[in-house]
Write a structure and sequence with these properties.
The protein is α/β, with parallel strands linked by helices and 548 residues long. The chain has helices at 4-7, 71-90, 102-106, 110-121, 130-144, 182-189, 197-220, 235-249, 263-274, 278-282, 295-309, 321-332, 346-357, 362-379, 388-400, 412-421, 430-441, 453-456, 461-479, 516-533, and strands at 22-28, 32-41, 46-56, 95-100, 125-127, 152-157, 162-167, 174-178, 229-233, 260-262, 313-316, 488-496, 501-508, 536-541. It folds into 3 domains: 4-129 and 323-336, Nucleotidyltransferase, domain 5 (2-Layer Sandwich); 146-318, Exopolyphosphatase. Domain 2 (Nucleotidyltransferase, domain 5); 347-541, Hypothetical protein af1432 (Orthogonal Bundle). The strands form 3 sheets. It has a 6-stranded mixed sheet with strand order 8-7-6-9-11-10, sandwiched between helices. A 5-stranded mixed sheet has the order 3-2-1-4-5, sandwiched between helices. A 3-stranded mixed sheet has the order 12-13-14. Helix 6 packs across helix 11, helix 15 packs across helix 19 and helix 16 packs antiparallel against helix 17 (430-441). The longest helix has 24 residues, at 197-220. The relative contact order is 0.10.
């Protein structure tokens, strides 16, 4: 039997480069919506940026009482996304990838908003976790800056969160995301203009306290004698560098990449910004529109992070999340084989990390995954038409379906849902994690029902259909290893459409094993499969010829 865990974790199929020469990536951030359009050069492999777009929408300006995204803000965001789509179309972009981060992630109506975007614009937006955001930021930085195998700390200060990453050209050692951002802290902590001394001191203390854990994680993973350089990305840091460069040099450099801002100069800017009003900050040469409102909070976050890390300067990298989304897409489609290739197996490593954390019996789960994928492949085109992405989701669910035993044997399928849903599965967006968790939830006992909250969390009918179909397949796969001893080696499927029958031939490992418990389990679990696919399941144990 193929060892799935060590040898056969498939990536998405390579697509022809000619189909995707130009692609666009959109980032729905807390402060602004950004788009980058790139032309992929697969022979290098790399990409060149041919257009950038930005609109300050302030998704993070949410309703105070409910935390919901405001109607007028959602309208503004949808209009901006529509404009971005038109620009991408004009530039002949053949694929548009979009991700949403903390503001949408935390809003109770965030998923409803993304469904509206899909319904009105036909644009599918991936909702990603904070740690997944950090991973893609790291990919973006690697695409634009040579780390030379030396440790670097990367800080990305967004509107709603701050990501701090430790990496050295290879796999990231630490990926953290903290709920401190320029928009968030401005709206929650600053009520005076100019800021009062009391509010300023509290702002500093709050930012420092929130960042301490991330910094401790980074420092704990530094080796003796390592003194990493700090790399800064995104709007806050780029703005601070622009206004500093304009004042020091008289103009802004053609590229900010590699520009260095010292902690001493940053502290001077923080002291200047805190003493003036928002209108005075807006008048500073080089200050982007609307950035003046949140620049002080962002600068304080950077200052406190640098103090905690014990670094004297920060170096700018102009590539970040959006470019990381591009790199991640290229990896998924087999277009990168260089130093970033390790990221191609990020899903595998992430699933196995969670499996090990919750003491999953990998030998058993591996067999379940093999059976599930075999059933998936043999029923594709007859009972379903799901593709490679759904196949990988089924694979992850099969490997993790029993992780709930870590909590309790009783109702372990429900515990599996909770553990998967609240684990950081890197390489997957929030919707995919929700689907994986639901598949694990429904590998036994009750089938999916609308009254179940976890099932209702799947806002799309298509996503619910994935769970319905794949959980029915997973149930059969689990039944095939009922004794967890590998009693069955393989299965062979045959669909008879005239009779509406699905024949399942089961091949035992030993000639003297009647596999009675496995056959009973298949019969016991077949009802969900039959109801879902509208067939009658007929199971046959195939005899093994005994040599004499």
């Amino acid at each position: 039997m193929v060892n799935l865990v060590s040898a056969s974790w498939e990536s998405l199929p390579t697509q022809t480069v000619e189909q995707h020469r130009i692609i666009a990536a959109i980032d729905l951030g807390t402060n602004s919506l950004h788009m980058v359009v790139v032309q992929i050069e697969p022979r290098l492999p790399s990409f060149s940026i041919i257009a950038r777009e930005k609109e300050t929408v302030r998704l993070g300006d949410r309703e105070i009482e409910t935390g919901n995204l405001k109607p007028e803000v959602m309208e503004r965001a949808i209009a901006t996304l529509g404009r971005f789509q038109e620009i991408a179309k004009t530039l002949n972009a053949e694929t548009v990838i979009a991700v949403a981060t903390s503001a949408v992630r935390e809003a109770p109506n965030g998923k409803d908003f993304l469904q509206r975007v899909d319904d009105e614009l036909g644009l599918s937006v991936d909702l990603i976790s904070g740690q997944e955001e950090a991973r893609r930021i790291y990919l973006g930085v690697l695409s634009g800056m040579e780390l030379n195998n030396q440790p670097h700390i990367i800080i990305d200060i967004g509107g709603g969160s701050t990501e701090i990453i430790l990496g050295d050209s290879h796999e990231a050692r630490v990926l953290t995301s903290t709920k401190v951002g320029a928009v968030r802290l401005t709206s929650e902590l600053i009520t005076t203009d100019p800021i009062s001394n009391a509010e300023f001191k509290y702002l500093q203390a709050y930012a420092r306290g929130m960042l301490e854990r991330s910094v401790e994680d980074v420092q704990a993973n530094l080796k003796s004698g390592e003194f990493p350089r700090l790399v800064g990305t995104s709007g806050t840091i780029e703005t601070l560098v622009m206004i500093h460069a304009r004042e020091q040099l008289g103009s802004v450099p053609s590229t900010l990449n590699g520009y260095e801002l010292s902690l001493k100069d940053l502290q001077e800017w923080v002291n200047r910004l805190r003493k003036i009003s928002n209108s005075e900050r807006a008048a500073i040469p080089g200050m982007p529109e609307k950035r003046s409102e949140v620049i002080l909070a962002g600068a304080v976050i950077l200052q406190e992070a640098m103090n905690l890390l014990g670094v004297e300067s920060v170096t700018v990298c102009e590539r970040s999340l959006r470019e990381g989304v591009i790199v991640d897409w290229m990896l998924a489609h087999g277009l990168i084989e260089d130093r970033l290739r390790y990221q191609g197996s990020v899903r595998q490593r992430s699933v196995l990390k969670i499996a090990n954390k919750y003491h999953v019996n990998l030998e058993h789960s591996d067999r379940i995954a093999v059976f599930a994928l075999s059933l998936f492949d043999q029923t594709k085109g007859t009972l379903h038409n799901w593709g490679a992405e759904e196949r990988q989701i089924l694979q992850a669910a099969a490997l993790l379906h029993n992780c709930g035993h870590y909590v309790s044997h009783s109702s372990h399928h429900k515990h599996s849902y909770y553990l998967i849903r609240n684990s950081e599965l890197l390489g997957y967006n929030e919707t995919e994690v929700e689907i994986i968790a639901n598949l694990a939830r429904y590998h036994r006992k009750s089938p999916p029902k609308k009254k179940h909250e976890n099932y209702r969390n799947l806002v799309s009918k298509n996503h619910r259909q994935i769970v319905n179909h794949l959980s029915a397949i997973l149930r059969l796969a689990v039944a095939l290893d009922r004794r967890q001893i590998g009693a069955i080696t393989r299965v062979q499927c045959e669909y008879l459409p005239e009779q509406q029958e699905f024949h399942l031939k089961v091949f035992p490992s030993r000639a003297d094993d009647d596999c009675a418990l496995e056959l009973w389990s298949l019969d016991y679990n077949k009802g969900v499969f039959e109801a879902e696919f509208g067939v009658k399941l007929v199971t046959n144990l195939e005899p093994i010829a005994v040599l004499t």
